[in-house]
Amino acid sequence: MPRYDAVLIDLDETLFDFRRAGHEALEASFQAAGLALSDEWYRLYYATNAELWREVEEGKTSVTALRVERFRRYFSRLGLAIEPAAFAAGYEQRILSVTYHIEGAVEAVREIAGMAQVVVLTNGISHVQRARINRSPIAHLIRAVIVSEEAGVSKPDPGIFSLAAGFTDCRDRSRMLMIGDSLASDIAGGIAFGIDTCWYNPTAGSVADHVRPGYEVRHLSDLPAIVRG
Ligand SMILES: [Mg+2]
Q1: Would you say 124 and 92 are in contact if contact means Cβ atoms under 8 Å apart?
Q2: Torsion angle of alpha carbons 194, 56, 132, 10, nearest 10°?
Q3: Cα–Cα distance between 121 and 30 in angstroms, integer?
Q4: How far is the CA of 89 from the centre of ligand 1 (A)?
């Protein structure tokens, strides 16, 4: 019998390479507006976007509000007179049309799904996340996809973990594992919900003092052995 019966797993930067897809979508959106995306502009977008997602995690704003607000704030910082809502819609359309996987993601999910029930738990925009998953070979391997925008609550709030756990048959939290790349949302949230956690840490970053993952892996190919125990 495997060590875990249910596995909750993050999507962006854990299974999907969102950074690459996001960079391309942003570049194409600027191109459509007759502008070229510089490295400096990209870094500022990345920082502004991260700032908004942090505010969502802290419960200060909603995912739906973030969709336009991140571009409103970004263009205001750049001093560009671009209408944020239309730009946001074009960006989302572009980003949902590509799915790049992190190396080893499909193989790892396939192997894990042979041992445990897998639920994807992602802080994100519903139609974007669902379109990207539906195009991926992982789609038929997972029991459910929980997206924060439609859940109305985001990781690290234990509420969204409880919602995701409800899509599995597992009622014993000691047999449930959360896997993700974010200490602040995936690992802290899993700990708050009372389940074991595994930090996907490909760049060998250091652990924050107050968040201690139960396991840590550098490669997704290391995950099945942890689920197997
Ligand atoms: Mg992530």
Answers
A1: no
A2: -20
A3: 30
A4: 22
For residue 145, how far is its CA from the centre of ligand 1 (angstroms)? 14
Overall CATH class of domain 6-16+101-228: alpha beta
CA–chain centroid gap for 169, Å, is 23
Q: Give the number of other CB atoms < 10 A from CB of residue 60.
A: 10
Q: How far apart are CA 7 and CA 108, in angstroms?
A: 12
Q: Which CATH architecture has domain 18-95?
A: Orthogonal Bundle (1.10)
Q: What is the pTM assigned to this prediction?
A: 0.95
Convert the pLDDT of each residue in 36-79 to its tens digit. 999 999 999 999 999 999 999 899 999 999 999 999 999 999 99
- CA-to-CA separations, 33 to 36, 112, 135, 178, in angstroms, rounded: 9, 43, 28, 40
**21 CA → ligand 1 middle, Å:** 14
Residues spanned by CATH 3.40.50.1000 within the chain?
6-16+101-228
Q: Where in the chain is the domain with CATH 1.10.150?
A: 18-95
